[in-house]
Amino acid sequence: MNRPNNWLRGAIACCALVLVACGSGTRSADGPKSGTLRMAFVYATTSQNPFQEMALGAAAGAADAGDIDLTETAPPGINGPQEVSQFQAAVRTARDGIAMETLTPDLFVRPLQQAAAAGVPLATVDTVPPAGTKVGLYVGNDNTELGRSLATEIIKQIPVGTTGEVVLGNDIPGLDLLSQRLEGMKAVLQEQRPTLTVLGPFDTGSEPTDNYNKWNNTVKAHPNAVAYLGAGASDAVSLALIQKNTGRRLLVGSCDPDSQALAAVKDGYAAALASPEHWLKGYIAIRLLAEHARTGKPLTEGWWNPGGLIINAANIDEIIARQQNDQSRRQWFADAAARQLAAPADYLRPLSEAK
C-alpha cells in the first residue's frame, strides 16, 4: 500500500528538482530574486533610429544591473500584429520583467492585461500605456515640452514680425506622442511669432523612402515657407536631402539624433534637433524593472520623464561623438542615469499627467 505513495512522492521531488534546475533563480511571489533574471525589451521596429536607441539603452541597463538575460525583439518594419506576437512570446519566457515600446498601443490592451494577470512586471517606454491595462510605470518624454523647445530654438532665426508660412509634418498621424510634439511647436509659433501662418501638420510618412517622397511633395507645394518642422526621426534627413538635390537652403527643425540628421545639423541643412534621449528611456526602464526583481520592493509607478535635449551648432560635435558606439553612449549618459536613479522623486509624476 505504501509503494504508490512513495512513488508519487519521488516523482514530485524529481519534478521539483527539474523546475529548480530549469529556473533562472529563486524568488517568493513578492520577494527578491537571486540568480539570472530573464527580461525582455519589445519594441516597434529595428529599422529606425529612435527604436534602435531605446534598445541600446535597454541593453546597457541590463549590463549595468548585472546577471540579466535580456531578450530584445522587434519587427523589421512597423508591424503591430507581429509585435504583439513577439510580446506574447516574451511573456512566456521573460518572467522577471518586460519593457515595451509600440507605435500601435491599441493592439496591446488585451496582451498587456494578460501579461499583468500572469504576474509579469511591466513598463511601457515612449508610448503611454493604453487605458485599462493596469501598467503602472511609463518612461517617456513630455512631448509637448519637447515640441515647444524645438520651436523656441527655431524662432531664434525668424525675426519678430516675419510673415509667411511654417510647414509642420507628422510622420505617423494619430500617434499621440507626435501630435503632442506638434501641438507644442504650434503653440510657441502662435505665441511668439503670431504673424506667421502655421500649416499642417501634413502626413509625411514614417519609413525613410516614404518620408522623403512626401516631404518632397510638400516642399514643392509650399516652396517659399519660412521653416519646415517635423516631429519624427526621418524628417531632418529627408529635408537635408531635398536641399542637396535642389541647391536650396531651408530652415529645418526636427526630432531624434539619427546619424544622418546629426550630419544635417553639422553641415547646416538643419538648424536644430530636439532629442527625446531615447537611449536613456530604455536604460531607466530596464534598471527599474531589475531593481524590482532583485529587491522585491514594489515596482516604481508613475510617469518617469527623463527629459530631452536640443542639438544645434553649439553642441553638435559633442553629440556626434556621443553617438559613435555603445561605449560612447554609456559614458556620456552615465552621470545623468546615476543622478536620475538616485532621486526618483525628481523625475516622477502621476501617470495621469503624461503627455
TrEMBL record:
GO terms for cellular component: outer membrane-bounded periplasmic space. The keyword Signal applies. Residues 41-297 form the Periplasmic binding protein domain. Gene3D superfamilies: 3.40.50.2300. It is found in: Cell envelope. GO terms for molecular function: carbohydrate binding. Keywords: Signal. It holds the Pfam family Peripla_BP_4. The keyword Signal applies. Coiled coil: none annotated. It comes from the Bacteria. Residues 1-29 form the signal peptide. Belongs to the bacterial solute-binding protein 2 family. PANTHER family: ABC TRANSPORTER PERIPLASMIC-BINDING PROTEIN YPHF, D-XYLOSE-BINDING PERIPLASMIC PROTEIN. This is Monosaccharide ABC transporter substrate-binding protein (CUT2 family).
